[in-house]
Specification:
The structure is a single chain. The protein has a single domain, classed as Methylamine Dehydrogenase, Chain H, CATH 2.130.10. Helix content is 3%, strand content 47%. The chain has a 4-stranded antiparallel beta sheet, with no helix packed on it. Strands 4-5-6-7 form a 4-stranded antiparallel beta sheet, with no helix packed on it. It has a 4-stranded antiparallel beta sheet with strand order 8-9-10-11, with no helix packed on it. It has 1 helix and 28 strands. It is mostly beta strands.
Length: 353
């Protein structure tokens, strides 16, 4: 009904219905063993893909034809056709928490937060090349632009580790702050979200030296560059805040308070930001041009998110669309727990994820 009314309105305005996008938004519900698929034009959940245990992060394959989803507790990778939301295959693999391809496409590095290991794979074949045992809770990762070094945050050890991908050995480990989480390479420096504090750390990649800190709010998690490269968006899960940083100066220039623990982000073709709200079983859509925010219910403890551009609605799957309902807010997961559990509505820091 909503789609028909929208098409009628466009017709009255003299606009073609094809102008309306129907991007698919994939949301990993780490507390619900599922993946929500949202259609951007209607804001409705049109698929709910079951998984075995606990999904956290996802990336596209090197050719862009599939999404790779890591189910860390089930020890498997799930491959999905992003245009149809169909699961194409599954592969067994040890504890895939965070995963990224190197810029040259040769390596796939996977961190294992629970098993304290960093695995280096040949990307095209996913053949294991090396397994490094590292200090407490390896979390997020980033590469140098030349693909020679990968950097891994160590949440339980207050550290950041640099690993040589040719020799497959650590180069250095440095202390960067309490519970370091997301890390990105930005214009010759590393930016690290310090989740146990209120700032992003600016780190020299040559030796791990801390150069400055940028206040963004308590529970600073990670940083996402805008598609045009002019802005960096930092999420803060404890203060429930998104901060826009100038990409050139790294100075804060805007801020949005969004209750529910903003976590991961993805951008749609219109420049809107889709983000997971970790503690309230919802995602948010932020238009940074206007500041308008809306939220959509998904599964419990949503984590990774990905927007797949699409112009036509997803064909019917033969059943009625899945109707999501809001869940209670979630307390942060504790070390060693498989998944968050429902708690009273309190937004607070997740110490290990």
């Amino acid at each position: 009904m909503r789609r028909a009314c929208l098409a009628l309105s466009l017709g009255l305005l003299g606009l073609a219905p094809a102008a309306v996008r129907a991007d698919l938004v994939y949301v990993l519900n780490s507390g619900d063993a599922s993946i929500s698929v949202i259609e951007s034009s209607t804001r409705e959940e049109v698929r709910r893909i079951p998984v075995l245990r606990e999904v956290h992060h996802l990336i596209p394959t090197l050719d862009g034809r599939e999404l790779i989803v890591g189910d860390s507790v089930a020890n498997e990778l799930i491959f999905i056709d992003p245009a149809t939301a169909e699961v194409t295959r599954r592969e067994k693999l040890s504890n895939p928490y965070h995963l990224e391809h190197s810029p040259d496409g040769k390596h796939l590095v996977i961190t294992s937060l629970r098993r304290d290991q960093v695995d280096i794979y040949d990307a095209p074949t996913r053949t294991l090349l090396a397994r490094l045992k590292v200090p407490d809770k390896p979390s997020h990762l980033a590469y140098t632009p030349d693909s020679r070094v990968v950097f891994v945050t160590l949440q339980g050890a207050r550290g950041l580790m640099a690993i040589d991908l040719q020799d497959r050995k650590p180069l250095w480990t440095a202390q960067v702050g309490s519970q370091p989480a997301g890390v990105i390479w930005h214009r010759g420096r590393l930016l690290v979200g310090i989740m146990g504090a209120d700032h992003v750390a600016v780190v020299n990649p040559a030796d791990g030296r801390l150069e400055r800190t940028i206040p963004v709010g308590r529970g600073a998690h990670t940083i996402f560059p805008s598609p045009d490269g002019k802005t960096l968006y930092a999420t803060s899960r404890v203060d429930s805040r998104v901060t826009a940083l100038d990409a050139e100066t790294l100075e804060p220039r805007d801020r949005w308070d969004i209750p529910g623990g903003p976590d991961c982000m993805s951008f749609d073709p219109q420049g809107r930001i889709w983000m997971t709200l970790r503690w309230i079983a919802r995602i948010a859509v932020l238009d940074p041009a206007t500041g308008a925010v809306e939220t959509i219910p998904v599964g419990r403890s949503p984590h990774g998110i990905y927007v797949h551009p699409r112009r036509e609605p997803l064909p019917a799957a033969g059943t009625e669309p899945f109707v999501a309902t809001a869940e209670p807010a979630l307390a942060p997961a504790k070390a060693g727990q498989d998944a968050p559990t429902p708690q009273p509505a309190v937004w607070q820091r997740d110490p290990v994820r």
